[in-house]
Design brief:
With about 220 residues, this protein is of the alpha+beta class. It is built from 8 helices and 8 strands. Helix 1 (about 15-30) packs antiparallel against helix 2, helix 4 (about 125-140) runs antiparallel to helix 7 and helix 5 (about 145-160) crosses helix 6. The relative contact order is 0.09.
Length: about 220
């Protein structure tokens, strides 16, 4: 079997079609919003004359540009999408304790990656890491993966007294993804529900300054 680079999976044209449909709806139904405007003026018989009119407010096209940018940056990979977006990656990174330096976040059916990593040599490894998360979320019906992540994260944080970074590495979802991201054949060889094995086979994980993974036994 020939291993193809994940970056070279062909782009599907339905993304452009979806973008056009969404933006057409957005322009016709969401940008033109009526509102009542009250105008005060002088009244010949004395007092203040109040006039109420209905005006159509056309919102700035900034949101259209944002939506268009999102849809045009989508890449369809068969059973998930890859989206390149720095703001979304930073926002979700804060939620899952990775902070503003998060490189990528997965929330099925989306893998969201910082755009500056498109030409980075680690992109294949990063996409493989996030694709492992896609498989995990599908197997655990999405909500199950987040329940499992939250339980293990808080167990590591408050029971094992690990710091936030190590609590993140301690979770079975991250153990599987980090320990196998460098194996180009892992997604083909991976067995369903492989993440469950990492509930009981933990390694102490860390990264060097250049990003190499270090695996050690827990003392």
């Amino acid at each position: 079997m020939v291993n193809r680079s994940l970056k070279n999976i062909p782009f599907r044209p339905q993304n452009t079609f979806l973008a056009i449909c969404f933006l057409t709806y957005w322009d016709k139904h969401l940008l033109h919003i009526p509102f009542k405007e009250t105008v005060a003026g002088s009244n010949p018989s004395g007092g203040t004359r109040v006039k109420s009119t209905t005006t159509t407010c056309v919102r700035t096209n900034r949101w259209s540009q944002i939506c268009y940018s999102i849809f045009m940056n989508l890449q369809f990979k068969g059973y998930f999408f890859i989206l390149y977006s720095s703001p979304i990656t930073r926002f979700l990174g804060r939620i899952v304790s990775l902070g503003d330096n998060a490189m990528a976040i997965t929330f099925w059916p989306f893998i969201i990656i910082r755009p500056d990593l498109k030409t980075n040599p680690v992109l294949d490894e990063l996409i493989r890491h996030e694709t492992i998360h896609i498989r995990q979320q599908l197997e655990l019906l999405l909500i199950g993966s987040w329940i499992l992540y939250g339980f293990e994260y808080f167990y590591a944080l408050y029971i094992k007294k690990l710091d936030k970074r190590q609590a993140y590495y301690y979770t079975a979802l991250e153990q599987e993804a980090h320990r196998n991201a460098m194996n180009p054949n892992y997604l083909n060889e991976r067995k369903p529900y492989a993440v469950l094995w990492y509930l009981f086979n933990k390694k102490h994980l860390s990264r060097t300054a250049i990003g190499d993974l270090i695996e050690q036994d827990f003392s």
